[in-house]
Amino acid sequence: MFRSGARRLAAALAGLAAFAGIVALGTTFTAANEDRAGDFDFYVLALSWSPTYCSEAGSRADPQQCRASRPFRFIVHGLWPQKERAWPDFCPLPRDIQPSSEVMTGMFDIMPSRSLLQHQWRKHGSCSGLSPTDYFDLTRAAYEKIKIPAAFQNLRNGGRIGPDAVEMAFRLSNPGLRDTAVAVTCTNGKLQEVRVCFDKDLNFRSCPGVDRAGCRARVVDVPPPRQ
Fold it and tell me: Residue 106: which of 80, 124, 132, 130 has the closest Cα?
């Protein structure tokens, strides 16, 4: 009886050890596949049509962005490190690496939301391999590489337009920007974003995966800026 019980105990302990080994192996595998800061191929600059966000979010909209005295049109959603077939996000960082209030305030003219800035740093900036200051400086530099078409800078009453026409307007306003380096996205039949791909030196570059994910609607609504 004692020997039988001992054998069962030994078998149980062996099974437990094997299970622990599997768990340890799984933990090692997961850690080895975590996204790492600086490990990416190019950037995507996402320009969001602010009136769409404000109309879609309704009462949940950020008042800093949607109730500003000067209504916003295209703003920066974010500058996203991207891989050819995926994208890194929420890369591990020391807790004390956060954008300062001064850095965030300095971005309000093109990213008018403190919560947006904080989220973009944590999700995307953390994977850039840059400090918060350098990441947001690069974000501004990418934004300043793009000339927003006059039709959108001056738009007051909204309307309807084909995503291809939006893309063409950006290409015509930005020499060297090819159709495979820019994509237009939509949400609920409304213009959502224009996404432009840059290499790490902020030169336009093709990004077929981003381009393929663009809006397939024939036409989309363009909500007007708040008057």
Answer: 132
- Name the residue among 223, 185, 205, 216 with its Cα closest to residue 82: 205
In the three-class reduction of DSSP (H, G, I as helix; E, B as strand; rest coil), residue 140 is classed as: helix
Q: How many CA atoms lie within 13 A of 39 on its CB side?
A: 12
d(CA 71, CA 128): 30
For the chain, the distance separating the N- and C-terminal CA atoms, rounded to the nearest angstrom, is: 87
Q: What is the pLDDT of residue 13?
A: 35
Could you give the maximum distance between any two Cα atoms of the chain, in Å?
A: 90
Cα–Cα distances in Å, from 85 out to 30, 40, 42, 192? 19, 10, 11, 22
**Distance of alpha carbon 111 from its chain centroid, rounded?**
13
Q: Which of 127, 119, 116, 120 is nearest to 92 (CA)?
A: 127
Residue 120's H or E segment, with its range, is helix 114-123
pLDDT digits (tens, 9 = 90+) for 156-204: 889 999 999 999 999 999 999 999 999 999 999 999 999 999 999 999 9
pTM of the model: 0.83
Question: 114-162 pLDDT, tens per residue?
Answer: 999 999 999 999 999 999 999 999 999 999 999 999 999 999 889 999 9
